[in-house]
């Protein structure tokens, strides 16, 4: 990890740069795949599965027999853990349910909202080096609570054509309707446009590599909604001299093992802690099975020493991390001043991995600084709010003249007339 001591503010832009490849550079390649899937459907998806995932499939859908067989392959301990996580995610997201309230803005003018689940949603679950069955819960559980009628899941198969059994178990438990063996750009295109097997959906959720991100951005231009722009995973630990260097190092490495393009950052006011964390990172790294991946991520990662907590907070809010762990003596006070972050973990006993799996909060979060403008996935991500209004004759008499005046001044006489004819009828009664 790079050590940076007391950087000046004009260095922050370069210092906080993510290691992400610009997805625009991939658009031409990705567009070719999307267009082929759009034109040829299942045939194109099967061809791309052979090319990219190195698997020859005859069908894309996962059968009921495969789901049952997969479930029997995972341990009871893992099933219990997944069930516990699902319960907590369910409790947290159910508490976010919208309750519409009728508001009488003026006598006779009543307005309200109703929350309606998006009817068809698509979930993309990465496979690759780490099949993210936890992401199945994070997406399917709130989709089910929101009332989404069709929940479609795509995930890349292994070379033998199988899907990781924990993904299958989590999908059934969380209420996924259909599962398909499709990864990468071809899966995003299939859910965006529909094929003979894979239904077209109205919104696509889920993380992925740079190609998946580029595909989501392209299809969202006009054809389907997406959850958010997303890139490689990242974590920042904000710490002072009271932090435990063993915990800090473990938190940095837990993110670094996600992928070679992940980023881990320590921002601290303590030089002694920074030096201790550097030593501890090297020690713990050697014990990780995924140390090769983590080592590559650490090349993009930094230990940053700043002069005081004021500067640490300014730097943190400028970085806008996906995950922020605050390991300071007065972490509650520090947390109050955080305005840009995806998900925040308070105190030395709240590791980021708790949110990744089982505490109940959602781990699908904005990366690459998008936390300045985007929220993480929540129940709201799966619903639409429809507005309603009802106007009585009393209300029309009260509000009508104002509408007529405004419409006339915008030179929209048809708008004005829609009110005038009603007022004329009311006044005759």
UniProtKB/TrEMBL annotation:
Keywords: Amino-acid biosynthesis, Histidine biosynthesis, Metal-binding, NAD, Oxidoreductase, Zinc. GO terms for molecular function: histidinol dehydrogenase activity; NAD binding; zinc ion binding. PROSITE patterns: HISOL_DEHYDROGENASE (PS00611). Pathway: Amino-acid biosynthesis; L-histidine biosynthesis; L-histidine from 5-phospho-alpha-D-ribose 1-diphosphate: step 9/9. The lineage of its organism: Bacteria, Pseudomonadati, Bacteroidota, Bacteroidia, Bacteroidales. The keyword NAD applies. Belongs to the histidinol dehydrogenase family. NAD(+) binds at residues 124, 186, 209. Signal peptide: none annotated. The active site is at 322 (proton acceptor), 323 (proton acceptor). The keyword Zinc applies. It is an enzyme of class 1 (oxidoreductase). This is Histidinol dehydrogenase. CDD domains: Histidinol_dh.
């Amino acid at each position: 990890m790079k050590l940076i001591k007391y950087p000046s503010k004009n260095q922050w832009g370069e210092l906080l740069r993510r290691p992400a490849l610009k997805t625009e550079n991939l658009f031409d390649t990705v567009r070719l795949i999307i267009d082929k899937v759009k034109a040829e459907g299942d045939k194109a998806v099967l061809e791309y599965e052979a090319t990219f995932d190195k698997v020859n499939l005859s069908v894309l859908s996962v059968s009921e027999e495969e789901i049952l067989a997969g479930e029997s392959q995972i341990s009871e301990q893992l099933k219990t853990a997944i069930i516990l996580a699902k319960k907590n995610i369910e409790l947290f997201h159910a508490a976010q349910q919208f309750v519409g309230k009728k508001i009488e803005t003026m006598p006779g003018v009543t307005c309200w909202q109703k929350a309606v689940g998006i009817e068809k949603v698509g979930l993309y679950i990465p496979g690759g080096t780490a099949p993210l069955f936890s992401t199945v819960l994070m997406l399917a559980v709130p989709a089910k609570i929101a009332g989404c009628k069709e929940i479609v899941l795509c995930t890349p198969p292994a070379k033998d054509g199988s899907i990781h059994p924990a993904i299958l178990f989590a999908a059934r438990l969380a209420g996924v309707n259909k599962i398909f063996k499709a990864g990468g750009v071809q899966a995003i295109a299939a859910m965006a446009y529909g094929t003979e097997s894979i239904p077209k959906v109205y919104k696509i959720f889920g993380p992925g590599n740079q190609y998946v991100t580029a595909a989501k951005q392209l299809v969202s231009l006009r054809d389907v909604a997406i959850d958010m722009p997303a890139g490689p995973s990242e974590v920042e630990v904000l710490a002072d001299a009271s932090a435990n260097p063993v915990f800090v190092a473990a938190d940095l490495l837990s993110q670094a093992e996600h992928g070679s393009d992940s980023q881990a950052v320590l921002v601290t006011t303590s030089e002694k802690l920074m030096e201790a964390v550097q030593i501890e990172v090297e020690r713990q790294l050697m014990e990780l099975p995924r140390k090769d991946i983590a080592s590559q991520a650490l090349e993009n990662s930094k230990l940053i020493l700043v002069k005081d907590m004021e500067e640490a907070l300014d730097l943190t809010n400028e970085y806008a991390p996906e995950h922020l762990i605050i390991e300071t003596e007065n972490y509650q006070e520090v947390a109050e001043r955080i305005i840009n972050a995806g998900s925040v973990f308070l105190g030395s006993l709240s590791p980021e991995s708790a949110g990744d799996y089982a505490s109940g909060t959602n781990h699908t979060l904005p990366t690459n600084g998008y936390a300045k403008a985007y929220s993480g996935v929540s129940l709201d991500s799966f619903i639409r709010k429809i507005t309603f209004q009802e106007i009585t004759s009393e209300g029309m008499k009260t509000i009508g003249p104002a509408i007529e005046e405004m419409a006339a001044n915008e030179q929209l006489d048809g708008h004005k007339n829609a009110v005038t004819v009603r007022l004329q009828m009311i006044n005759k009664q």
